[in-house]
Specification:
This protein has two domains: 1-30; 36-138, OB fold (Dihydrolipoamide Acetyltransferase, E2P), CATH 2.40.50.140. It is 28% helix and 30% strand. It has helices spanning 3-28, 39-45, 129-138; strands spanning 36-37, 52-59, 65-66, 71-77, 82-88, 100-109, 112-120. The N and C termini lie far apart (56 Å).
Amino acid sequence: MTRKGRRLAMIGAVAVVLGIAASLVLFAMRDSIVFFYGPTELAQKNIAPGTRLRIGGLVETGSVVKSADQNVSFAVSDGNQTVKVAYRGQLPDLFREGQGVVAEGVLIAPGQFKADSVLAKHDENYMPKEVADTLKKQGHWQEGQKSETKK
């Protein structure tokens, strides 16, 4: 084989290896690329307990229970399904019932979630885009509401 032929064979082999590596990475990430779930999507997908993800929706009215040592439990709903969330820590100042929220953490069991962090809306016109999109899909979005993202 000539020098030019060996060089082309080496370039071709590297391209094939890189293609296979990229395919394996994308295949492995296919389920974790979608990082956000609404309560209905969470119930439909039958996600295994112990999976790390984010959920979002509206905090159900009357569901917030605060106890000692900054333990808080509340329910997040999209109007169809509800997920009970347990959180330990200080909640954002604007966290309240009936408002949009995104919680990040681990699914404990179907319908039960342990949050590491809780994000609430930060002004009167903001709702996380993922929450607004989920509420629109479920038909619970009111046309007068706004959804803006801050960058």
